[in-house]
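Hey all, sorry for the wall of text incoming. These are the two entities for the joint prediction.
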Amino acid sequence: MVESFHEFVVHRSPALCRTAYLLTGDHQLAEDLVQTALARTYRHWRRVRDGNPEAYVRRVMYHQQVSWWRRRRLVERLEPAPTEPADVDHSEAITLRLALNAALRQLSPRQRAVIVLRYYEDLTEAQVAEALGCSIGTVKRHGHDGLRRLRAAAPELVQDTAERSTR
Amino acid sequence: MTSQLRDALRATAEDVPTYPVYERALATARRSHRRRLVAAAATVVLVALAGVTVPLTRTPALDPAGADAALPDRLGLPPIGTLHVTDRPRIGAASVIFSGTAPRLRGWIDTSIIGLVGADSDHYRIMRVGGEAAAGETVYLSPDGQQLARPDGDEDEPGVDVVDLATGRTRHLKSSVTNTVASTPVGWSADSASLVVRDDVPVAFDGATYTSVLSIVSVDGGRWTRLASGAEEARFGSTVAAAPNRLAYQYGRTVAVTDGQGRELSSFLLPDEAWLAGKGAWGPGGATLTVATRRPATGEWTLRQVDPRTGRDGEPLRLPAVTGMLSIRLLGWAPDGSALVAAYQQDPDAAEPPLEEQTGPPATAEQVSSVRVLALTPGATAPRTVLTAPAQVDAVDVADQVIRAGRVRDAEPPGGVGARFWLWTGLVTALVAGAVRYLARRRIRRWLDDRRARASGY
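and here's what came out:
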């Protein structure tokens, strides 16, 4: 059954927002990213609604994020305030998230997109290549470079088993 | 190896709230849609403007020698929306101008339209002239094809306008003849530097009778030198022929020959049924004048040479006669010795001119139904048609340089509509679309909302 655009947004917004935040590391940017991607999807809704509209939105988000990054990569951004509920003690989770955010900021948008798609969305390299509109080789290169940078920035997130075994 | 990374990503994602983006996404989409519409309208306008103005910041390279000039073998009526003579791109030089009573050669409220054809191509332009105007009678193409002379139509300050076809600029030559009420160009000098102009000066206050004053006017300086004057009935300058440093013009039954400064060198009387043949009356060498003679019994027209000092017959020309025509005008001489004449077909429905105007050729446009250009080749048995014109085109003038080039090309007159049509259509369409869109913006928004609500079940 073909759902309306409103239904689509209601049902898929939470997942899209989570991905957007992981791609940007900033709530405001994530919100803008989702809004922009949905606006573009709405303009082409008649064409995409019968296929896989969510894949379309995600593809728009990935490309839009790379495009934005190119335009404002020289702009310093302030660290956003935490948004989780204050009455829950999530100190370990907060520590982990801050470490993740700090590490993800070391990546380029493409590396970041590959990391999010591979290790959050659990897509295969072929699926990532299709989503980003690039070759599998490019996905492998960005994934490899991204992991290398993450390992350097936050070794606790990406453990090198070979090295650990020698230690 | 990456399980910590996966866990961290998921833990981070779980804390992300759902952003309220639905309404703003719709607003962004609509805003973007509006901008695209505006951009599309602007593009239409720019493209329409570009169609006329952009190709065209350039002025066509001129070819003063007229190396590629050629006579088109047929004329067409200028399409609706044809560019004006002052529009870009400039036509540069023209080969032919024409006029007539066809609907596309008549403007609003007593305005005539002169059609122009490019010197070496079928680029058409038009020029509006107030009142009755006819090519080769009141509007003249300069010998080099690069200028056009027309009466300015100003009764308060009469003069002549000279339009430069290369630059689009119009130079106004205000008449220096005292009390003149109308100035009309009647011919060009051979070097395109001067004009012969006739002024009508009322003799009495009521303007019932007029004196005609013929002057030679330099186009650059606007210096007016009087050639002759006399009663209007003598039709001063009904035919003017120019050769380098010489001028011949007819008034009454007399032909006067002057030098370039207007000093009379000689004059002679024409016999009955003979007239100075036309603007190309000077022979190719400039030593003889050509007279057109009508044989009253048959209406047959022949050309013969006369001595410009005495008017006595010269060598026979051996040119074929022209029959069945109301009159002919000699336009010039081709390199092969052919005489090119404009031949005027009588309009059977034309009113009989008043007795005082029945002074013979050249025919006026009112008496003519169509015109064609014939080549009278020495030794040929009959004239050869080198240019045809549509019905209701009754006057034509050809640049001397085109005649001298001696080439005739296959013409393809433009069809469809002209560039001005697209310019105005584009502008009006964009304005109407913009106005409709603006006026109906609320209704459209409401309709889109209703449709969306129906589709989503809300």
